[in-house]
Design brief:
The chain is mainly alpha-helical. It is built from 13 helices and five strands. The strands form two sheets. The chain has a three-stranded mixed beta sheet, with no helix packed on it. The protein has a two-stranded antiparallel sheet with strand order 1-5.
């Protein structure tokens, strides 16, 4: 029986009634003979060599059965010619990287050697951000570990066409791991969708896309992934926060700055942003300092905001007439 994550060394043959796991190699064959692991230096690697994975033994793990068999045979012949292997095994009863695994009992001349395949450890990254309540709650910023990791993961999943539920699952895991807000998740989702839109336009144009192509892909991509964006916009306040995040994407995605109003309208058309959310953001942007990003984006959306207000007034008038 071979457990998950176990590597069997080249030239070793599994004895009957053998259990090999990540934590121990149990050899329970009834025959006498040398200690298990006595020939574990086959191929000149030794326990630590197996744990690290020798380049010259890569053929033993090949999908090609003939190639693997040839490599195993060659390694076994080398092992039989080496002396003092039993003494080395007695001196080092523990197998595997950092002493993971033990040998129990005895096996025949063809010994069993096993150790866990080494798993590369990701670098430890410390989240130096606050507990999610920083003064600038609308921007990720360079060096923000949560935003960097989340954008990479969500962007890749969008490219692969993953299901919305799976994307939300991954993003929520990062949210809890880094203690971030729903607004951050909404911002990451929006930036990933906008980046995907530009990528689609770039591929369609074979280079830097003209504005017409870019806006067409923008509208289509937002429509395709509106269900993802809606997961993080449950109220007018959430929507206003998402728009503030969009304001700050000009640095990461420069093309969004001159096309901010079109992105806003596409989000409205696909029911990601409600009228209340847009009007709430507009009232906040009007109170922002002169020359600020919010005031600039508000000015860009003047025509759209006017249309939105007029449409709201018409709806109110029609409601009053129906009541009469």
């Amino acid at each position: 029986v071979i457990g998950r994550g176990v590597v069997i060394g080249a030239g070793a043959e599994l004895a009957p009634r053998t259990l090999v796991t990540r934590h121990a190699a149990h050899a329970h064959s009834g025959g006498g003979g040398e200690d298990a692991g006595s020939e574990s230096d086959s191929g000149g690697a030794g326990p630590e060599g197996w744990a690290e994975g020798d380049d010259e033994d890569d053929a033993a793990f090949s999908d090609d059965e003939d190639e693997a068999a040839d490599a195993a045979g060659a390694a076994g012949d080398d092992a039989k010619g080496e002396g003092g292997a039993a003494d080395a095994a007695s001196a080092h009863p523990m197998l595997g990287d950092a002493g993971v695994g033990f040998v129990h009992g005895e096996s025949g001349a063809e010994t069993t050697f096993a150790c866990p395949r080494p798993r590369p450890q990701p670098p430890m990254e410390v989240d130096v951000s606050d507990d999610g309540d920083s003064d600038d709650e609308h921007a990720g910023g360079d060096g923000d570990i949560f935003w960097d990791n989340a954008l990479e993961i969500v962007g890749g999943m969008l490219e692969d066409g993953c299901k919305v539920d799976n994307i939300v699952l991954e993003l929520n895991a990062l949210k809890f791991a880094y203690n971030r807000s729903v607004a951050d998740c909404a911002g990451v989702s929006a930036q990933s969708v906008l980046a995907a839109a530009y990528g689609a336009a770039e591929r369609a144009a074979g280079g830097e896309p003209p504005r017409k192509t870019l806006l067409a892909k923008l509208k289509r991509t937002i429509a395709s992934w509106s269900a993802l964006l809606q997961r993080y916009v449950a109220s007018a306040e959430d929507g206003a926060s998402l728009i503030h995040n969009l304001e700050d994407m000009g640095e990461a995605l420069p093309w969004t700055a001159p096309n901010f109003q079109f992105a806003l309208q596409a989000l409205y058309d696909d029911d990601v942003l409600s009228e209340d959310a847009i009007l709430l953001w507009a009232s906040e942007a009007q109170r922002a300092a002169e020359g600020s990003v919010s005031r600039t984006r508000h000015a860009q959306c003047a025509e759209f905001l006017t249309w939105l207000l007029e449409a709201e007034e018409e709806d109110d008038d029609s409601d009053e007439e129906s009541d009469d």
